[in-house]
Design brief:
Elements (H helix, E strand, L loop, with lengths): L12 E4 L1 H4 L16 H26 L11 H9 L19 H4 L3 E6 L4 E5 L6 E8 L2 E6 L31 E5 L4 E4 L4 E6 L3 E8 L5 H18 L9 H16 L3 H34 L22 H26 L1
Antiparallel strand pairs: 1-2, 2-9, 3-8, 4-7, 4-9, 5-6, 5-8
Length: about 350
């Protein structure tokens, strides 16, 4: 139902992984202010590595088969890729290029939203306490945003939040709500932990990204620690029936289901970003060393020696050159004579 009370159902295309499904399209560029994006960089690196591994396995498999069998992936290779969450189509197309791509290939946080007038998104905060930005291509959205210091006023006795920020049970926070009208061409930034509700005032097409970087990563870590504690308490009755490692594995599995990440995933994200930054630093240092070496090289000037040219003959002396030499010798003799007279008095 529309939050204003309209009971008509609305169909809303949400969370469409457009970039992942059409990586060669390049229909838009992320605004420069939002490009320091560890979350989607992590998944891009994962996708690239998965494609390289799949290609390497395919080459190894083809090398072990006869030429007649190299036209299509084997069932064993296909099963290996399925186990890794990847799909290679039977016609041999690359992974990640069809709508059948796996979660590994499409678990980025870059979305396209397309909804008619009246479609809406209930009250929520973004995944992993990430930042988000939303750009309206066409249409108009109305946002209601609640700063995180007032979220506790919304919780009921069970700690649950309402879905509609305009419902009577949310009246305690109405005075703290920030309302924004987003027109076509506007880009809206949503800080970490801000709950919000959104309604499409007219038919609207928008682009939305969630992202994490060094400025808000601590919010993600705090959330995962809290969720880990909550899941552990929920599964406490199972602790005695499993070893500590088995119990922790169960907790991590449920944590990943609930939050989209577990502690191992979080460590993998940090490790991947650190390695990428170290590689960038090493490449920069190598480039600087090459530039310094180029500047330190002596700048030698080359001159042509005519005598070294095969077939070159020294031209004969010109007559006026000899006369000029004799004239110069005469002038020098006269100068010496005058100088000698002057110093002799």
């Amino acid at each position: 139902m529309h939050p204003t009370g309209d009971a008509q159902p609305w169909y809303y295309l949400k969370d469409w992984h457009f970039v992942a499904e059409f990586p060669a399209a390049h229909v838009y560029e992320t605004p420069v202010y939002f490009q320091d994006d560890w979350l989607n960089e992590f998944y891009d690196i994962q996708q690239h590595q998965a494609q390289q591994q799949a290609h390497s396995r395919e080459q190894q498999q083809q090398g072990a088969t006869s030429p007649e069998q190299q036209g299509a992936p084997s069932q064993q290779l296909l099963q290996q890729n399925i186990e890794l969450g990847e799909i290679i189509s039977i016609n041999g197309s690359s992974p990640g290029t069809s709508s059948n791509s796996s979660n590994v290939m499409t678990s980025d946080y870059r979305f396209v939203y397309l909804g008619p007038a009246g479609s809406w998104t209930p009250l929520h905060s973004d995944v992993l306490r990430s930042y988000s930005w939303s750009a309206n291509v066409v249409g108009r959205k109305r946002w209601w945003l609640l700063p995180p210091e007032h979220t506790h006023l919304l919780k009921d006795q069970h700690g649950q939040l309402p879905t509609d920020l305009l419902a009577p049970e949310a009246a305690a926070v109405w005075e703290h709500i920030i309302e924004v009208m987003q027109e076509a061409g506007d880009v809206l930034f949503v800080p970490s932990g801000w709950h919000h509700m959104v309604v499409n005032e007219v038919d609207t097409l928008s682009i939305n990204h969630n992202w994490i970087n060094g400025h808000n990563i601590h919010w993600s870590w705090a959330l995962l620690q809290y969720e880990h504690e909550q899941v552990s308490q929920l599964l406490e009755d199972c602790r005695d029936t499993a070893s500590p490692d088995e119990f922790e594995a169960l907790v991590q599995k449920m944590l990943a289901t609930n939050s989209g990440f577990n502690l191992q995933d979080f460590a993998g994200l940090l490790s991947t970003i650190i390695q990428a930054r170290l590689q960038s630093v090493q490449q920069l240092q190598l480039q600087q060393q090459k530039q310094q070496a180029a500047r330190a090289m002596p700048q030698t000037k080359t001159s042509l020696n005519p005598a070294a040219v095969p077939g070159y003959a020294q031209p004969p002396a010109l007559p006026f050159a000899s006369a000029a030499g004799q004239y110069q010798d005469s002038r020098q003799h006269q100068a010496n004579s005058v100088q000698g007279s002057a110093t002799g008095d």
